[in-house]
Amino acid sequence: MKVNKWIVYREINGEYLLLDLRPHSRKYYKYSGTMAEVFTLLRKRDSVDQVVNELCEKYDESARKQIEIDINRIFSKLVSEGILSS
Question: pLDDT tens digit string along 28-39?
């Protein structure tokens, strides 16, 4: 997974600030806490499954099904908003 070329992002004190530079968009995003962690994992891993596995190892393996649902939902939203591509 990768951040699309029209997205500029910076990490500042554990938060991510993102700007969509497409002419028709110019949207601004701010991710902190769990969303910042998820964004970091999504842009550094090759698949949603790798992200889910890492979060389950870190937090709670018994919550795998909910983590899968949540991460797939977040990934789909980031793709539909043009932030990430697979």
Answer: 999 999 999 999
